[in-house]
Amino acid sequence: MEDWLFLVLIVLVAALLQTSTGYCFSIIGTPFLFLLYPAHTAIQINIVLSLCISVIMIYKIRKEIDRSLLVRLIEGSLIGLMAGLMVYLYVDVQLLKMAVGSLILILTVLLILQLTIRQTRLRDFFTGGISGLLTTSIGVPGPPLLLYFAGVGTKKETLRSTTLAYYLFVYLISLVLQISFDGSSKEVWVSSMIALPPLLVGIWLGQLLFARISQRVFKIITYMILLFTGSYLVVSSL
Question: What sections of the protein cross the membrane (predicted)?
Answer without folding.
Answer: 34-57, 69-89, 95-113, 164-181, 193-210, 217-235
